[in-house]
Every structure is written in structure tokens, then in C-alpha cells.
Amino acid sequence: MQNNHHKEHLYKILVIGDLGVGKTSIIKRYVHHNFSPNYRATIGVDFALKVLNWDQETVRLQLWDIAGQERFGNMTRVYYREAMGAFIVFDVTRPASFEAVTKWKEDLDSKLTLANGKHVATVLLANKCDQGRDVLTNNGIKMEQFCQENGFVGWYETSAKENINIDEAANCLVKHIMASENDMLQSEVPDTVTPQLEKDKGGTCSSCFRSQ
Amino acid sequence: MEDLRTRQTPGEETSSSDTLQPNVRGTAAVSSPALCAARLPLPGVMDDEGRVDESRLRMHIFKNGGVSPAERGLAWRFLFGMYPCSSTASERSLLQEQLLVRYKVMKRKWQQVFPSAVRLHLNGTDAELVAAVRYFDERQAQAQQQTQDQSEEVRDRLAFLELQAQILFERVVFDRGELQEAIRIIDKDVPRTNRDLSYYQGEGSGNLLVLRDILITYAAFHPEVSYAQGMNDLCSRFLEVLHSEVDTFWSFSCYMEKFSKDFRADGLHRKIELEAALLKELDPQLYAHLATDNMESFTFCHRWLLLGFQREFEHSDALRLFEILSCDHLELISQQVDRARYQERLARNYSTGEAYLRSAECLGICLLNIMTYTVGTESIQTPLNFSLFVSLQPFAKIKKVHFISH
């Protein structure tokens, strides 16, 4: 079915944020296209897989739905490992959950960097926008500024319940992940050999790689 | 490989078979004094005055794969330690009054410090929750009435106990910030407890508010543990089985004395490490396979271990498994003496017994063998308990599915 030039990407994406902001709901909406008001609190971490067709290429997003309570904070280092992108979610009806955004971003950036030393692409999601709006998100310019200052590649007002902006936000994240991936490939100095264990890329000289 | 990594844990979304039955039990009682004198109809477990032979009770649970649902409420009061096994029925009757009064005093104390937290704040979008608050309020009013109907003699006795309890808790000072944060999280989590259970249907929805009060009271008086996500699920088990607010609080507190470290990051981390070490020892091939795929951190075991498979199995099975795991029978008996007996019983159960017990027995032998040596070169200080071995069962299944299908 797939021709030989068909390229596959597998990206690990983190979904983090204060508890009860709707991380699980966003993932269920995005992956299973449904919504329930009665999800149970996530314990530890849950996983979901979303497959996208992206310019004749296949993108597999491995979504890591991480429990919101800080109690297990020092386990997040393990969860973050090898992630390529992240959503940080807050609840527009609860200003305290927005205050937690910077904490999550700092936690993420302090524990996770890409091979080139840069931070992973992160999109900010202002969820539950169907239920009313926080003062802050009403002011788009302020949010833009917040994103720039805190290193978010973008932000979206989302609603898992009403299916608003979730695909758009994911596409934005994928676009930035791919850009940073290209960036990393190009920035490699041609004379240096950088062994990479990326089995999904099926490179032309795979035998060379294997013999290393 | 990504299939394995992203596959949902089995049973994750399946609602339990109990969803269709309407709840006939209503909102839990405040206390269940009648049970103090109730007889546990298990052969040879209770003497004439009501004392329980603890090791026989544990063995009975293990041997029979749990007790019947009708006996469960009373059995758990002994199993988890709310009733001391050595107590007589008449001693328990006094104890029950003391526990009731202490709990009331404790609850009143945080309610006085945080009057705004006495009631759950509703945002109006959850009609079920609004109804739940109404059922809870009705129960409160009933309980109030019952207190007023008590005889003078009972009232005097309770007043004395109350004075004692007040002295006991007088010096407790709450960390206001911490407790406020705990209440915030509890209020987020309680409505997210498994509400599909029949226990929380109809008038039973009031039990969500009972659960809330128990969790807040626990958090207030155990600041070193406070509240952590998942406790609502665990406590919900006790509430459903005991159907009494006071008894649930004390039984849950007893349980947490042993397991509260699981709710701290380092405690659970250690348990997950042990699980990994155990698999490495028992199935090096599967362990190596997981390691090549960067899964050696075993984070996917987190929920199994924390909640005792509550979300992985059908509800009634999970309850039974929790009971069997909690009986600690294997951990408590002498290894050497009983090994032969297990093997004998195992052989017998292969022909007549049921699947649960069979796997429990298999693991039992496994446990006895393993407990006699340390895993790897590093000696393990934390005891390897039965639940870690049970947690290995899903691996065997995954291995079968994965290796055979590829």
C-alpha cells in the first residue's frame, strides 16, 4: 500500500497542566472524537495514538496524558524523556490554573531539551472556552505577549466539549515539531558523525548504521 | 512496537456489569453500631464472645478467593483493623461510640476553620451533583433527628467521649494553605470518582459528598500525606463496602497507615523499581525487550500498583482482588512450613478450583520461592509483596499477545 518513499514520523507529545483542566478530554476528543463529562482523574500516565496524513507522509503522534497533581513531580523527568513537543493546558474558568502554566513550562524546559539544546515546541491551550472566558484570554495581545515571553510557539482557545480548535492546535504543534526536526538535521556539521537511532526513518544506508 | 506502547490498558473504558442495577442502598449511614455485635459466619473464625482469629480470617479470604459480598462489610472491619481482632462484641460497642465521636469532632474542627468549605461549590452545570448535594443534606437532617432522639444516658456518655476527643485534638493546628489546596483537589476529584457504579446512582449520589467529607477529614489530620489523586478511588471502595461514613474513615485511615507512602512520589517510585527488578529476574527476555524500547522505567505500572488494579478489572473482580491482596496471607505465614501445603492445594485446585484462586496459588508458590533470595546483586529492603507479583501477570499476557502475533 505504501510506496518506498513514504516517510513516517513518530513524535512523542506531552499533555500537561493543572489537574481538572481537561487534558484527558482534549485527547479523547482529538483521538476518539467524543466527549464525556465524567472522566476519572488520570493516575500516573495514560497513552493515546493519533495518526495524521501530512503532505503524503504519515505522522504518528504518541500522546502522553500526564496526571495533573504535582505530588508525583519528580516522576515527570521520566515521562518527559524524548518528547518532541508539548501541550500545556489551562482552564479559562479557573485563573489559578493559568498561574500553573509558567510552573509547568519551567519544569518542562528544565528537564527536557532537544539534541541541539533548544526547548521542545510547546503550544498553550486555553481550554473550556465554551464555558466563559478568563479576562486574560479576552485580551489577545496580552496572550501573544505571554507566549513570546514564555517560549510558546502558539496558543489556542479550545473546547473539548464543543470540539473547538483542537485539530488546529495539534496541526500547529506538528508544524513546529517538523520545522525543529529539519532545523536539527540541517544544523549538523557534515564532517561529524552523529549516530541516531531513529528506526522510523528507514534511511538509505541503514546497514552502515547497524554496523556501528 | 508503538502498538504496545499506545494500547489502552485492558478494561480502561469498560463500565462494570453493575451499572444497570439501581442503587437500593441510598446514602451511607453516619455510623453502623449494629455491626459491633454481628457474627462473622466463617467457620472457626469467631469465638463465642466475638473475638476473631486473625490468621484464620486471612487464610479464609485467601483460600476462598475472598468472602461473599454479604460478609464483606463485617470482614473488612476486622481485616483492615478498624475492629481489633482481639476485641469482644461488647468492647466493640464502646469502641464504635468512641470512633463516632472522634470522627465528628475531627470533622467539625476543619469545618470551623474553613466554613466556606463545608459545602461543595457547584458551578451549576452538573445536575447529578446538584441532586447529590440534596440527598446528602437530607441524610444530614435525618442524622440530626436521630441524635435528638437519643436517651439521656446515651447522651451523657457521648458528651463525655466528646470532651475526651476535644482534648485529644485540641492541639492539632492545620496548615491552612496546604489544607485549602487539598480541598481544592478533592473537590475536583470527588465528582470524578467512578460515578457509573450503581452505588452512586439515584439517592446513592449523596455518597459522593460523604466521600468528600471523609477525604477532607483525612487530609486535615494527616498533613504528611494530605490528599493525593487516586485516594478518592481507594476510599470509594471502602465506602461502598462498609456503607458508613465513620467506619469508612477509620478503615481507610488504617489502610493508609500501611500504604500512604505509595502516595508520595518516592514511595511509588521505589515500588515501580521493584516491579521492574522482579520482571528482570523472572523474565529477563521480556525485560530486555522492554528496555530496548525505552520502557524500562515501567511508568505504565503506576496505576496498577497505586490503585490495586481498580481500573483494570471489572468492578466486582477488582474488589475481590483488592481483598485478597489486602489479606497479606502469603506475607504473614511461615514460608517453609507452608510451601508443601500450597503445592498440594495447587494440584487440587487445577481440577476443581476456579481461575482466580489458581493464579493466586501459582503466584503464591512463586512468591515463596522468590522471597527466599534477593533479586539481582542488590539486596532489596522493601518487602516484595503479593501485589507486585500479581502486577507481573499482565506482562505474561502482553508477552503472549505481542511475541506470538509478531
TrEMBL record, chain A:
PROSITE patterns: RAB, RAS, RHO
Domain of life: Eukaryota
GO MF entry, a single one: GTPase activity
Keywords assigned: GTP-binding, Lipoprotein, Membrane, Nucleotide-binding, Prenylation
Record keyword Ribosomal protein present: no
SMART domains: RAB, RAN, RAS, RHO
Location of this chain's protein in the cell: Endomembrane system; Membrane
Topological category with respect to the lipid bilayer: Lipid-anchor
Signal peptide: none
Protein's GO biological process: endosome to lysosome transport; phagosome-lysosome fusion
InterPro entries in the cross-refs: P-loop_NTPase (IPR027417), Rab29/Rab38/Rab32 (IPR030697), Small_GTP-bd (IPR005225), Small_GTPase (IPR001806)
GO cellular component: late endosome; lysosome; membrane; phagocytic vesicle; trans-Golgi network
Transmembrane segments: none
Broad class of where this protein is predominantly found: membrane
Family: Belongs to the small GTPase superfamily. Rab family.
Described function: The small GTPases Rab are key regulators in vesicle trafficking.
Protein name from the UniProt record: Ras-related protein Rab
From TrEMBL, chain B:
Record flagged with keyword Cytoplasm: no
Residues covered by region (Disordered): 1-25
Residues annotated as domain Rab-GAP TBC: 66-329
Keyword Protein biosynthesis part of the UniProt annotation: no
A Pfam family that the UniProt record links to this protein: RabGAP-TBC
Recorded GO MF terms: GTPase activator activity
Keywords: GTPase activation
Composition-biased stretches (Polar residues): 7-24
Name of the protein described by the UniProt record: Si:dkey-238d18.4
Organism, scientific name: Mastacembelus armatus (zig-zag eel)
The organism's taxonomic lineage, starting at the top: Eukaryota, Metazoa, Chordata, Craniata, Vertebrata
